[in-house]
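can u do me a favor
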């Protein structure tokens, strides 16, 4: 039987994807598709959590802002 990831593990993975997304968005137009891909994956993980910590809420808001500014949302 396959073990389900814990909320903490999901949060860590979401943060890792967030960091990659921000780096891609800040690197410029050529990496916007990668930033969008990582941001969407991070958002999906955050949406799967039953509740978000204040830091996770900030991450979600920041990713939404990056996606809106880049036209990826």
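np, heres the sequence
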């Amino acid at each position: 039987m396959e073990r389900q990831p814990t909320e903490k593990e999901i949060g860590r993975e979401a943060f890792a994807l967030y960091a990659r997304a921000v780096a891609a968005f800040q690197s410029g137009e050529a990496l916007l598709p990668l930033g969008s891909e990582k941001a969407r994956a991070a958002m999906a993980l955050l949406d799967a959590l039953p509740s978000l910590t204040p830091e996770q809420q900030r991450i979600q808001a920041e990713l939404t802002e990056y996606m809106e500014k880049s036209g990826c949302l």
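The chain has three helices and no strands. hope that helps!!
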